[in-house]
Every structure is written in structure tokens, then in C-alpha cells.
Amino acid sequence: MDAKYSGRFAPSPTGPLHLGSLITAVASYLDARASGGSWRLRIDDIDPPRHDQTSFESIPSCLQAHGLTWDGDVIRQSLRRSTHDQYLKELEHQGLTFTCVCTRTSLGSLGQCEADCSSRRHRTGSIRFKVPDNLPNTLDDLILGSRVTPRLPANFVIRRRDGLIAYQLATAVDDLDELYTHVIRGADLLESGYRQMAIQSALGRQSPRYGHIPILYDQQGNKLSKQTGAAPVDIQTPDQNLKFALRFLNQSTALSDTSSVRDILEHAIDHWNPKAIAPPGV
Ligand code: GLU
To answer: Would the CB of 10 count as within 6 Å of ligand 1?
Structure first.
């Protein structure tokens, strides 16, 4: 048992949870609780144009309905804006940022700025992080195993043109400051993991351990998401939803049809086996 384990679930408030996000919540919750660790809920509310106000309520109540109770208060990522700005300055002082005025159409295939923005002193635009060359070349993922780092873009946005802090920077530094030892989330964020590790290593800090779980696809082969109109989780059937999530994660659900949410979770914690999760095809 790892007494110091600290994990989190960090949804964006862009709509109610769907089954795919519930699976991520279940996996990160079980991994934390089976290790005797803490589990926090952080609402990643740093992109107001994409927010759905009702989700500030519906996400926590959906988790509660499924018995997924978090430790401490709900964390709001937006409250850390001044800290995000300080980290931005720190990277700036290290000469690891530049202001970019490129439009989407002039960017390279990986979304990188290929113009001479870094050698000019533009006053407005997005701020990009220059990815250092000497990055670790593997990521030892808790679920996927050892992975060779793919080619990252030479630079990527950490503060958007509209002034908002980009997800990569906010998450990289919040995960450090909130002292998570483990980050369990969907495999669609694997590439983001490499970017966040690059920022964390530029700041001279040690990254948490990452574990990326398979994604739930709809019948058309699209990742379940709010953008593709995924249905909200039905909170009237939490037992069935939990069993669905456990089956998806290849976990034991050897319980009767009448088991309560509490019984299902207790059983799942006792039998949690992350090695059984099918490695995602990423
Ligand atoms: N807020 C991000 C999302 O909902 C996930 C953050 C993370 O787990 O790193 O997609």
C-alpha cells in the first residue's frame, strides 16, 4: 500500500458527465482508494466560452450519486490564475517562451509555429512554450507500460491569443502544486501527458505517475464526448453505470443484480486490478 498516493479527477465544466467521463472517474477513484490514497475533484474551469454553467452542479452530484466521494473541497482551477501567470513568467525568464502571431493556417502539421515569431518581439498574440530537445524519451505509463515519446511539436500554446491560460500549462502546474502522485485519465490525453511532462521538467519538477485508460467509443467510432452529443449519465441507475464502467475496465463485477452502489464500490476497491485494463490502441 502506498500511503502517500494522491490522485484526482479533473473534468472540464462543459456539460454533464457522460459514460466515458464516468469511466475515467471510476478508474482514478479506484486506483486511489485501492492504494489507500486520497482522491480530489478539480473542476478545470479555465475556458469560460466553453462552460456550461449547469455542470458546476451536475458533475459533483453525478459523482455523489455513484458513491464517488472526493476528499476536501472541490478545487476550481480558475482560482489559480495568478499562479499560472507566475509560472508563465518563470518559463519566460528561462527564455522558453515567445509570442506568436501566426494564424491557424500558417502553422506546421503538428500545430507548431514555423515562422520567425520567436526571433521577433511581438507584443500581442499567443504565448508558446519552446519544447526543449533533451526530454526523457520514454513515459512509463501505469496502464500502457513503457512508451517511446512521440515527436512533439517544436512549440505549443500555453497562453492563448484571447489571454486565457491553455490547458497544458494550467494542468501541468496544478498537478505539481496539488501534489498528485498519480494521474489516471483517458488515453486521448496521452500526448498531452508528454507536453505536460515537458513543462514540468523545464520547471525542474518531478512529474506525477501517469496512467491512461482506454476510451469509450460510440457506434460510429467517435470518442464519446459532449461535442459529439454523448448522452448524460443517467443518475437514476448508478449501480448499472458502475457495473458498465467496471466491465469496460475489465474488472471483477461478481455481484448480484441487487448490489448497492456501496457494495459495488467496496468490491471494486478490494479487487482493483489495473493490469487487467486492456491497453488502449494508441
Ligand atoms: N479537464 C480535462 C478534460 O476534461 C482533463 C484534465 C486531465 O485529466 O488532465 O478533458
So the answer is: yes
